[in-house]
# Entry
Amino acid sequence: MLVGFFARRIFIHYLGVEVMGLNTTASSILDFLNLAELGIGTAVAVTLYKPLFERDEQTICEIVSLQGRLYRIIGILVLSASVVVFCFMPQIFHKSTLPLWYAYATYAVLLYSSLLWYFFNYKKNVLFADQKNYKVLLCSRLVALVKLILQALAVLYLENGYIWWLGLEVVASTVSTILIAVIVNRTYPFLRQRVRADLSLREKYPGVIRKTQYIAFHKLGGYAVARSSPIFIYAYTSLSVVGYYGNYLILTANLTAILTALYSGVSAGVGNMVAEGDKSLILRVFRELFSSRMLIVGVCCICLWFLTDPFVSLWLGSEYVLGHTTLALLIAQFFVSNTRNIVDDYLNAYGLFRDIWSPLTEAAINVALSVWLGSRYGLNGVLAGVLVSQLIITFSWKPFFLFRSALEEPLSFYISLYARCFLPGVVAFLVTWLILPLVPVNPTASLWAFLLYALVVGLVALGVYTGVLFLTEDSLKGFIRRIFRAVSLG
# Structure
C-alpha cells in the first residue's frame, strides 16, 4: 500500500493525472463487460462448501470443471464485446487530449488480465471456499509490489515510460497466473484430472446454474453502485477530475483491501458454520464479527476525515485536495460498503440470492440519481446518488431480509446491535475532534509531523471507540478472546 502511494505520485508527476483518469475509466468499462461473469464464482464457492467439508474429490472436480466450461464461454463473450468497445473508442474518449492509442493500449492490457482469469485462474475459487485464500493473497500482493516498483523505475528513468508501464502490467498478470496455477495444483493435485463438462454436469448440479441466475442480478446492482461512478464522473466533468477522484479512491480502496485481507476467511468459515446448524453459535459469531468490523471501519472513517487532506497535500500537493463535501460523501460510502460485509457473508452462506428485485432497484436508483444530480452538481452529485441507493437497499433491506429469512430473529436484534456499535464511534469522533486542536503539530509541515499527528488521531480514535464499545457490546470481548485463543493454538 505504501509503495502504491509513492508510485502513484511518480505516475501523476511524469505521466499526468489525465492518464490515471484514463486507467480508472477504462477499468470501469471493462468491469461492466465483466458482469457477464454473472456471479458464477460465488455460486460455485457456495456449492463447494459441503464437498470440501466431506473431502469428496470427485464432486469437487466435477463442479470446478463445470465452472471452467462456463468461464470459457464468458471469456469469449467478453472478448467479443470488447471488439465492439474498440470500435467506439474515438467516441468514448473524444474529450481526452491524450493520443487515442493510449486508450486502445490501456484497455487491451486490462482485457488481457481479465481473460487470464476466465481461462486459467478460475480454479482459485476452490482455495477461497476452503479458507485458504491467504495463499493467493500472498502471491498476488508480492507480484503487485514488484510490479509497482518496476513501473515507477521505468517511468522515472526510461523513455516511453507509459509503454513500459503497460508492458509490466502484462508481465505481472502472466506471472501471477502461473504462480496461482502452481499453488492450486500443489494444494489440490486431484484437480489435475480431466472431467468432461458436458450437459450431464449441468443437470447433476442445477444449484450452480440456479444460484448463478440469482447472483447475476446482484452483480449488476453491485457494479452500478460500486464501479460505474468514474463513467458518470467523466461524462459530466473530465478525465482530470476522474484522476483527482481516483487519488482519493486509492485511500479507501487500500483500506478496503486491508479489511478484505483481515476477514478473508470469514465467508467460508460462516458457510461451514451454517452447514453445522448451531443457531446459538451462528448468532454469537454474527455479533462478534459485526462489532469488530464496526470498530475497525469506524476508526478508519475517523482517520480518513482528519488525515486525508493533509496526506494528499503532502503526497501530491494542495492543488489535488478535494472539498470537505466530497470527502464526507466518500467516507460515508466507505462506511456503508464495509459494514455490510458481515450481512452479505451470512446471506451468501445461506444461499439467499432470490431477492433479485433489490439489486435492480439499487441500480436504477443509482443511475437515475447519478444522472440527475451529476448533471447539476458534478462529482458530488454522482457520489450522492451512489450513497442514497446504498442507504435504501444495502443499509435497510439486506439486514431485514437476512433476519427474516435465515436467522429468524426480530429486526430489533440487529437495530439494537447496530446502535450499540455505532454510538461509540460517534463518541470517539467527537473526542478526537475536541483533542486535536490541543495537539501542537502541523500535519502538513513534514512527513514526520504528519506521522506524529496520524499516530495521535489513530490512538485516540481506537482507544475511545474500544473503551466505549466494551461498555455497550459484550461480543467484542468474545471476538478478542477468540483471536488470542487462535494465536495461542497457532
